[in-house]
C-alpha cells in the first residue's frame, strides 16, 4: 500500500492525513499506533463480560459456554453487563456534573467579589434561571441573585431534594413517565453515588432495576449537572449568538504566538482569552517578532470559545496529538476530560510547553499551574507571557501548517435559534408540519480510532440534510462537520430542496452548531420546548440523536439521558453489552415501551442515516403529519 | 519451520487465546457474530490452573508419532502434507473417544462444530489455524497473546533465546544493586578466617 493510502484509511481530513505523515517522519507514536498495538482487544471486556469490582475476582464469563457462566459471587452475564454499563454512566455523569459544580463555584465567587476577571455577562439569563429556581429577583442586586442562584444550584447537587429543579422544563407527560418509573433524578451527586453503591458486590443484582437507575443517573446529568454547566456558562460568559470563525489546523499562524486551549471548562479558557487580548502582552509578542497572539481551541473548551467568541478551532479528539506535530504551538493549556496522557511526551519532541491547570487533572510531562477563581486572571497573564517567550524557541524548518482554514458559522444557542426564527418556534414548527423540514437530528459525540476519523459524522450529516432533516451538532462531531464545510450558508446547496429553501430564507446553514458536549442539553431544551408548544411528549416528535464515533463514558451518559428523555439515539461503535441478550433486548427494543425511545447500534453511517430517516417518517405519521411510507 | 511455541511462565491467564481461537473457528470470524452462532464455536486451546493458581496454556502438540493418530479406529486422524499438523477429518470421526483416551495432554474435546457434519458431535482439537496460515496470518491464539506466552516461530529459535537468557543469568561477576561482584576467593578467605578463629579457641 502506498504511503498516502495508509493515512487515507485513518481519516477523511486533509490536515489529518498530512500531519500523520509528518508524525511518522518525526517518530511520533499516535493514538492510532497505540490502538493497533492493543489489537485484538479483550473479547470478554468487549462483550461486557468481565468484572473487577471485588477481590474475589477478577471474573469473566465465557461467551462460548465452555468456561464459567457466573462470577465468584454468583453474578451472571446480565448482572455483570448491567453493572459495567451502570458504572460507565456514573463516570460520565460525574464528569459533566463536576464541570457544572466548578462553574457554580465561580458563580458564587463572582457574587462574593472573589473572582477578579469573571463577571455576569448575561444578566437577563441570570434572572430567568433564578426565577426557575424559585429565587426572588425583584429589587435584588445582580450579586445577590447570583449568590442565591448558586446556593439553589448547590442544593440540586445534594440529598435534600426529591426532584431536580430544571426537570420542570420537560413536558408534563415526560415527567409523569419518569415519576411512574421511579427514575425522577433527585440529586446530582446522589444518583452517581447510588450507582457506585448499587454496583458494589452484593447490592443491586437485578439487571433491569440497575439499568433503570442508570437512566436516572443519566437524567441527573442531562437535566442536572450538564444543564447547570451550560446555563451558568451562559450567565458568566455570555449566551452564544451566531458568529463566524474558522476551523482545522490552518487556524494556526506561522507568524503569531500560537496558544491552544484544550479540555472542557470555560473557567480557564475565558481567562486565557482575556490575557491573549491584553494590550501589554500583544506588544510583548510584537517585540519578540510575532505579529500577535493567536488563541485557538481544541475539543470542548474550544467549542465554548468558538460559540461565544468566535475563537478558531484547531481540531477534535483525534487531532489533539497532531496539532503539536505542526511544530507551531508555543503552549497548550489543559484543564480536564478527554486530554490524552500522551500529549506531554509528544510535546517534549517539539518546543511546545504543556500546562495543566486543574487540581483534579495532572498529566505526565506537563507543568502544573493551578487555576482558581481568585488567581485565574493573573495566572492566565503569566502563562501567556511564558508562551510569548517560547515563540523564539520555534525551529523554523520544523513548522508545518499545510492547509488553509475552513470557514464556519457557530453560536446557535437555543436563544440564538429563537432569534433567527423571529422570536418564536412557530416558523420552525410550520416548516416541520409542512414537511419542508422533515425533522431534526442531533449529531453528537467524540472520535474513535475504531471508526475512520470524521467519516461517521460527515457521512451521516450529509445523508440527513440531503433528506431535508435539519442537523444540530455538538462536540467533536461539530468540528468534523465544520471542517467538511457544512457550516456555511453555501452548504445549503448540499441539502434537499425543502431544507435548502428554509436555510436560504432564514440565512442559516443546514447544520447548526449548538455547542460543546455539556451543551447537548441545549438540544434537550429545544426538543422540550417544541414538545410543550405542540402539547405532546418529547418522544412524539420527529427527532433523533446519533453518536457515530463515540468513545467516552460521558457519551454513554449523554446517550442514556437522550433516550431516557424520549429521543431515539443511534450509536456508531458497539457498547460493551453484547454479552447479555437481555440487556441488548431492553436497550434496543424494550425501552420503547418504557420511555418511548430506544438505542440502535450501526457503525456504518449510511445505514445509520436510513435508520434515522425511517424513524423520523414514522414519528411524522404518528403525529398526523404528511409522511413518506418507507419499507 | 514455524510453529506455535508455548512459554508457560509468561501466561497470565487472561484467556484471550481461547476467545480468539473460538472466533477463528466460527462461521462469521467476528466476535459479535460468533457468539450468536449455532453451534457455538469452541476453543481448541485450554488454559488450566496450576497448584499455585498460575496459568498454563494447554494446546495440542501435534506429536510425532501421534498417539491419537494410531488410536483412531476409522482412520479420521491424519498428518498434513508438510508434516506439521495432526488433523481430524470430522466426516470420518465416529465419536468413539479413543483419541482422547490416549492423548497424554487432554487437548481433545467433543462438540458439535460449524465445520463438522451438522448435529454430529465430533472430536475437536487444534488445527494450527491452517486456514489462517494459508492467508499469511499467524494462528489466532498467537495474535491474541499479549505477553508472548504463545509465539509463532521455529522452536529452535525460541530455545536459542532461552539459552542466551540462561547464559546471561549464569555470568560470574554480575553486580546487583550495590552488592560486591561474586568472587570465589572471598568464600575461601572467609572459610579460612572461620577455621583460624575456631583453632584459637
What does this protein structure show overall?
Chain A has 631 residues and is of the alpha/beta class. In chain A, 48% of the residues lie in helices and 11% in strands. In chain A, the strands form 4 sheets. In chain A, strands 6-5-4-7-8-9 form a 6-stranded parallel β-sheet. In chain A, helix 19 links the parallel strand 11 and strand 12. In chain A, helix 5 (77-111) packs across helix 23, helix 11 (266-276) crosses helix 13 and helix 19 (455-466) runs parallel beside helix 25. Chain B has a domain at 60-125: Alpha-Beta Plaits, CATH 3.30.70.20. Chain B has 8 helices and 8 strands; from the N terminus they run βααββαββαββααβαα. Chain B has helices at 16-24, 31-34, 67-71, 98-102, 130-134, 140-144, 155-169, 184-200, and strands spanning 3-6, 46-49, 55-58, 77-79, 86-88, 109-111, 122-124, 150-153. In chain B, the strands form 4 sheets. In chain B, strands 1-8 form a two-stranded antiparallel ribbon. In chain B, strands 2-3 form a two-stranded antiparallel sheet. A two-stranded antiparallel ribbon of chain B has the order 4-5. The longest helix of chain B has 17 residues, at 184-200. Chain B is elongated. Chain B starts with a strand and ends with a helix. In chain B, 28% of the residues are buried. The mean pLDDT of chain B is 91.
Record keyword descriptors for this entry.
heterodimer, A: Substrate Binding Domain Of Dnak, Chain:A, Domain 2, Rossmann fold, 6-stranded parallel β-sheet, 11% strand, globular, B: 201 residues, alpha+beta, Alpha-Beta Plaits, two-stranded antiparallel sheet, 32% helix
